[in-house]
User: What shape does this take?
Amino acid sequence: MPILRHHSLQKTSLQLHPLARALQTTGSSLLLATALASPSVFAQTSQPQASGQEAATGTQLKTVVVEAKADEGSADAGYRTETVSGLGAWEGRSLQDTPYSVNVFSEELIENLQATTPDQVYRVNPTTQLIRAQHENNQPRIMIRGFSVQRSYRDGVPDDQYNHSATMEDTARIEILNGLSGFLYGANNVGGVTNYVTKRSTDERLNQITLSSLGGESWYTHGDFGGKFDADGKYGYRVNLVEQGGDGAIKNQEVEKTFYSLAFDGNLTENFWMQIHAMDYTYDVNGSQTYWYFGNGVKRPSADSIDNEISWGQPWTNRWYDYNRYGTNLKWQISERVSLRGAYIDNRGTRGSESTSNTIQSNGTYSQQISGVYTPGLNTLLSEQEDKGGALYLDVVFETGSVAHKLTTGYQTNESDQYRMGGASAAPVNLTNLPMSSPSYIPRPTNIAPVNRGELKLSSHNEYSTLMVGDDITFNEQWSALLGAAQTTVKQGTTYDESALTPSVSVLFKPVETLTTYISFIEALEPGGIASDEFNGVPVVNKGEVFEPLISEQFEVGAKTKLGAVALDAALFRIEKGLQYYDVTNPTAPRFVQDGLQVHQGIELTAIGNLTENLNLIGGFTLLDPTVEEQKQTPALEGKAPADVAEKIVKARLEYSPSSIPNLSFSAAANYNGSSYGDLMNTDKVPDYTLFDIGARYQLAVGETLVTLRADLSNLTNEHYWNGFNGTRIGDPRTLMVSATAEF
Assistant: This one.
């Protein structure tokens, strides 16, 4: 009979048998459960010795307490983790003793959220504002500390530049760093970094199959297989296979997905571990949701006036993506004091897009523009991209008197190329006077005039490299510091080649073992923006213009502690960043500019862990004060809040497991997203909204197979709300996800 993972083992008093002594050493909950289920194992010490027989039978062992510790990140542990895989140059510190705001989401939590996309994780993380769901453009986008975060990382190395290959099925954990990370990850997003850690082989054989309904008629199958090749457990594998299809909770929108991943890892020598991994991924969205804009004099209507359960685009429009990724990770303990670690990623993708945008008119109708429609049968390829990145770090441990050091030197590099068709684009299809009562659909046009699209040509080439050195210093049990400096270089094609030296300084103080306080300062170099072809559906007058790099800086004061089995983290921060935006003084001729300063200051509080033996919590809040300062080109912007930034985010997810019904859990979550602005002048207010989710999970044994049943209902009240860039999207409707996972 399989042992159900959900059931927590209780503290038990028993006399210490040699097997129990081994259990105490290893902390293996599985072995302990087996031992506790077999009282005869302890029979030789459980009976009192008869008078006069003690010398012949041996001394009676003392009664001790053996306590099984829940696995890190498990539901039994309240999904709380003690470690982080690594933060760029730094590795080896516990999460509590890391002087940055970091949230870690474990593999078991990902499974229990039924997170087939990153969206479900972002929904429960109290420091992220989800502004683009994955199904919109296969490009999940978030705001952290009020800044847009696009690019994701895998195993500490940049993945693809537009985040089109953010895959969950091969991910063991997601680590989200809030704020600047120049010394840690080089030139990147100012708001923060999302790092996906690749799954490794399992110590025990894993055969797991999940069948799901993701809402509506959408179906999803996922096979996850792992284990070791040899009896010594040195070499192993991990395989993930996925198929998805069918209309989801939004009618006339279908997501088709195929995903394969394969990873091999092993200890090539006693001190050298290596992993090689690869994936192939296709993602198609048919009938994707549209962007909403507003004609002259039209104020944003209530989201309640627009049906959120049906696609307002054309059902035949298609966005398709085809990506593959190859990578390797290594760790080499060269000697007791010297170690080497590194990672490499090669990501390549192609994509095509047909999209729609709707504009609400003053007469109560809407118009629609359909872009990317070509002659039937013509290749709809839009672009190709190639991303390569790597990182290598050398760690040396030594002492100077009573002060301990871990000196790290490293090099990071990343290169991104994008290719676009060099010829003409298809003329858009325009529809007018469409009623707002329901979507208007037309057949796919067959009379599209052919255009010469030309050949793929290199449209952008970016190179980022960082050489860093850092020292992790421990003065005593209370005081420590992290000091580092990075020389970062940014190359944008032939436009510029700029470098900057950026520091990172953190000082930590632990007044008691369970409390860590810190103060940090960090600078970061980021690439300048590139003017896009269009803004709000209107051609940009300086499209393609590349702007100079920017240096941003962040001050942060934080505290991390544990109250019982709950980890509490708090951070006060201030970020100063150069402002880049589209000047729409002339709405018919938007211009991308780099001018002024964006200052975001705020506070974050997060909590994760077990409130009681039967109740766990993931929650917290973010309060922001974002302001535009030092504006020269458009002085009227000074004092305004940047567009899209929610000033308040409050989230809480509770999971309850009643003692009377083992292996059953209930969950409830609330997600409050404060109001923001859809324009720079703060005249278009995007209302706040609150989403409620509920769920349940039950495990049972069917023969030798462990079966987990899950059901989650998101947006319980079917709240209608605006989100997305400039508030141009209608949020997702009420969605029921159910799944059954068999593990054998």
The longest strand covers residues 381-400.
